[in-house]
Amino acid sequence: MLGLDDPFVLAAYLGIIALAVLSILYGLIRRNAARDEITEEDRQWALEEKKVDDEI
Amino acid sequence: MPDHASVGWIDIIVILAYLSITAYLGWLGYRGTRSAADFLIGGRSAHPIIMAVSYGATFISTAAIVGFGGVAGLFGMSLLWLTFLNIGVGILIAFIVLGEPTRRLGHHLGAHTFPELLGLRYQSRAIQIFAGALIFLFMPLYAAAVMTGGSVFAATQFGLDFEVALLIFALITAAYVIPGGIKAVMYTDTFQGLVMVLAMLFLLVFTYSSLGGVTEAHRALAEMQDMVPAPLAQIGHQGWTRMPAFGWGAPRYDLWWTVITAIILGVGIGVLAQPQLVVRFMTVRSRRELDRAVPIGAVFILLMTGTPFLVGSLANAWFAQHGPPLHGKLVQVLDPEKDHALVELMQKTDSGAWSAILNPKTQTPATAALIVTERQESEDVQGSRLELVGGRSSVVTYVKGDADKIIPTFIATALPHWFGAIFFLALLAAAMSTLSSQFHTIGTAAGRDLYERIAVKGQPREPSIRVMRLAILVGLFIAVTISYSVRQEYVIARFTAIFFGLCAASFLPAYLGGLFSRRVTKAGALASMTVGLLVSLFWLLLVKSKEAGAIGLVQLVTGGKTSILADHPNWPAVDPIVIALPAAFLTLILVSAFTRPPDEEHLQRCFPETR
Asked: A-B interface: how many C-beta pairs under 8 angstroms?
């Protein structure tokens, strides 16, 4: 199949495509499934992160 | 090797245009929202493309494209298992399993670097200092791999000496990371990521179409099975479309252990404990953003690693069909039906006679397998008659076995010159996005995790920007020095694998334990990190023959052997991660079982959701 005789190489070739497809499906299915809210703690963390980043 | 290697006006214009766009985007970002933190502060969401591509661009560099692509050219398509792990572990497990817990823990504890995350989670200054020191000491090795990859490509593409290319690359890096580029400008990362995607797509389509399509290309490569160079065949290479021979206890299985344990497992698993990637999860706004980034991240990694691994392998078939003709004296007919023959390579002298090309290492005539296309009577420099055969060989012959030159040589020879300039930019993009995060991590490790944590008279020091900047300069200097001095077999991939393996063995058990277990203790984490590091270093210095032999200590201990287990094949080919990671996990579990668990109040702070 596909000119690849070694089943382990063929499995890797098809496997990477299958994983990419699985990832796309995951993203589509979970698109809005998780909560999306920013807490005050998140904002405080980001302000501190920005400070560290700016310092460098 | 390529006859059109030079810098033309088109190259200069394309490169200047690219640098201008990058600078413009950086300037735009500098004025407004530029980093993931800005998005969070503003309460807005970064587009999943921006999040995923920026993560991917940090992950993928010239090390993956030139280094590991070249290794695929040498060892074949078994490298696709690394792409499998890069997507399965580096994207799916990292984003889905580790991303949200890392983000939450980092925000609950106010951690901003990976060592700080570990230090605060285990309430241990020693852990933070240990992790910071390890990053500061060894990250330059990985940065050197990235710089070597870019420099080898520039040298091949533009006909420069490697040293000159490295100097230019180092100056560009310094200009990029020192004044402002080090800031995580997400738009710039994304632009660079898109350049990389387009270049890889073109490269993949071009390679397959120039070999007659997907199946034809694979078939052509499969038919070259008998042309594998003898030194590779002796360690288990069975052809570029086949896995190396599997077994234990004989040198003919060495390649399997090298490819699977060092190249595939070391990097495939090591990605989970990469400090510069872990901190990316903390800059994410929510689990939803992580979920949405999964598809783009997976497709990006598929293109960025799958393409060079396929193209590196297929370069062998391309050169066997379209490479410059080679000539030599027939040594042995390998396959009369396909007209494959082993020849002693020869070159024409000014007098018109043929003289042997010598292998620089052995000073004996260099041999190579050719697909014979012509035969003629000729005469050698001694005036003796000889049957001269002409034909083409695998890319491994054209680059004289130097894997790091396979991708650059293929691009410079097979593709249009204008594409070489574009591809160089894609590589520059890949290198800069990775280098900027590497040096950012080196800077924060030195400043925040070492300098500030190492107390003077019991008092932690104030933050020092000067220390961070100095550390970045020192890291850059060390990386350039390593890159300049060490030029050995597939060194780009090996440096990367060493760093990834060290991070996995030293950090992964403590990191996973810190995220998911309330029972793991400070002593357990510190012991696990120490065991992971020491076992890795022991293995690199004394057991793994490629690294130990190059460092030289083992020869002093054994009286000249390159491994203390040199008489026990295949141990010298096994990567440290196979021993060090399980040892570190075991240490974490055992020491934690016998030491006092963290207090409930602290655990409540770490995991308030599991009340």
From this structure: 168
